[in-house]
Amino acid sequence: MVLRDKDSTKILVECDCGCAGISISKFEWHDGVKEYFFMHNITTFSADQHTFLDKFKKRIKMAFYILLKGTYSFNEICMSEENFKEFKGIILTFE
Fold this sequence. Notes:
single chain; alpha+beta; four-stranded antiparallel β-sheet; 3 helices
């Protein structure tokens, strides 16, 4: 889901399942300087609902990534193609 406020100062992008999201905010100071804020959020309910097997798989995946790439992505946001196209259009017009 991609949402935008009426003043075009904030964009909210949520995962299709609603468990994670990114918020992009624009703030303009009195002297004309613009700052952009990127915030990542994940719902605690979704984050804590894992079985033993899920936790085990995550640890194996993390070890595999660390050994091969040196980094690991803990969170990711999944969007449908339609939502991504909408997000892309909003980002291109966000100044």
